[in-house]
Every structure is written in C-alpha cells, then in structure tokens.
Specification:
Aminopeptidase; 5-stranded antiparallel beta sheet; binds coenzyme A
Length: 177
C-alpha cells in the first residue's frame, strides 16, 4: 500500500513478500557496520524479522518502516525509511537505510522529509528522535540536514555501543522539500 510520494520515490508499507529485499539490506556492509548484525541469514529468518518487528509496529502504532520504490527503475526497492517507537526511548525515532549503490544520491534526505511530514501531519507526533553511532558520519550529516539537533550520548541497549541522540520538535515549523 502506497502511503506517500516524492519526486523520485514511492513510499509503501512493507509486507512479508519483501523478505528477499530485507534479507539483502540487512546483510549489506554498512547495515552490519552501522546498525548491527541482526543474524538474519535466510528468507525464513527475514520473514520472522518482519513479523516481529515492522509488521508488529504497523499493528501496534499505525506506523513503522516503509519501503522506498524508485520510480525511474520500474519501482525497484532501494531502501527503507520510517518511524519506530522503542521501549527504551521516550519518543518515536526516525531511521533509514539504503542499498549501497543508492547511498549518497539524496534519497535519504528526499524520503526523510516525506516521512517527517507524515510523522507530523498523519501520526500527529510532536517530537522526533534519531539515534546513530558516532562514526556514522553520513547518517549524522543527513540528520543535521533534516534539522535534527544533537542532544547527548546515550546507551539505550545493554549489549550495544554508546549512541548519539538527535531530536527535533515537529510543531515548530513546516517541513518541506
Ligand atoms: C545514512 C544514509 C541513510 C544516508 O542516506 P543518503 O541517501 O546516502 O543521504 P543523502 O544522499 O540524502 O545525503 C544527505 C547528506 O548526507 C551527506 N552524505 C550522505 N551520504 C554521503 C556520502 N556517501 N558521501 C558524502 N556525503 C554523504 C551529504 O552531506 C548530504 O548532504 P548534501 O546532499 O547537502 O551534500 C545512507 O548512507 C545509508 O543507507 N547508510 C547505511 C545504513 C545506515 O547507516 N543507516 C543509518 C543508521 S543510524
């Protein structure tokens, strides 16, 4: 189901049929390096990952991560962007990841502006967070370009590294591309 559109992309809900793409994305070098190895190595594990994560989020909160379809390449799925409410954080955070050949082409910015618009106007969120590793410079640049501001270092997950917390109030200004 398509829920949004930008100049180059369609934004659609993820389904179990996207398991092959999820398997590929979760095993790209930058996902493993900057997000972490989720130990999803088979199609079956990718389906379980979707069921317990993204699909459950749609049910519980009405939002989640979305797939990004590139209009000029026959709606090929090139990445994900979306919203997640984690127990460990007070507010919803935004996240994104692209296949390697589609990084650094402005898709992160383009899709996130649309996701932030949905967060504000469809899901009525007042504040948006983001967490990232300190060495994920591309992610930090993108967050700053989106108007999120660095707040502090946090350690929300016990067996994980310290992360940088970014935040933005959504009711203060209109987000436009
Ligand atoms: C982090 C990530 C989502 C950024 O998305 P992106 O589509 O590459 O970012 P954009 O092309 O929209 O760029 C946004 C800004 O970030 C910077 N940037 C992003 N990728 C860059 C790259 N490869 N080289 C140099 N600068 C880059 C630029 O400053 C750019 O601003 P500009 O267009 O004004 O120069 C993407 O690199 C990615 O998928 N990384 C792997 C997964 C990941 O780390 N996700 C984030 C977890 S916190």
């Amino acid at each position: 189901m398509v829920i949004g559109e930008t100049n180059r992309l369609l934004i659609a809900k993820i389904t179990l049929e996207d398991a092959p793409f999820i398997l590929e994305l979760l095993n790209t070098p930058n996902w493993i390096k900057f997000i972490g190895d989720r130990n999803v190595k088979t199609l079956e594990e990718a389906e379980i990952y979707l069921q317990n994560g993204i699909l459950k989020s749609y049910e519980n909160f009405g939002f989640g991560f979305y797939k990004l379809l590139l209009k000029s390449e026959d709606n090929k799925i090139i990445g994900t962007s979306g919203l997640i409410k984690r127990e460990q954080l007070e507010h919803v955070d935004i996240g994104f990841a692209f296949l390697p050949e589609y990084e650094g082409k402005g898709f992160g910015y383009e899709s996130s502006v649309a996701i932030m618009d949905l967060a504000k106007n469809k899901f009525n969120l007042k504040k948006l967070l983001a967490i990232t590793l300190e060495n994920n410079l591309n992610s930090i640049k993108l967050l700053e370009k989106l108007g999120l501001k660095y707040e502090k270092k946090i350690k929300p997950f016990e067996d994980d590294d310290e992360l940088l917390l970014f935040a933005k109030e959504l009711d203060s200004e209109k987000t436009t591309l």
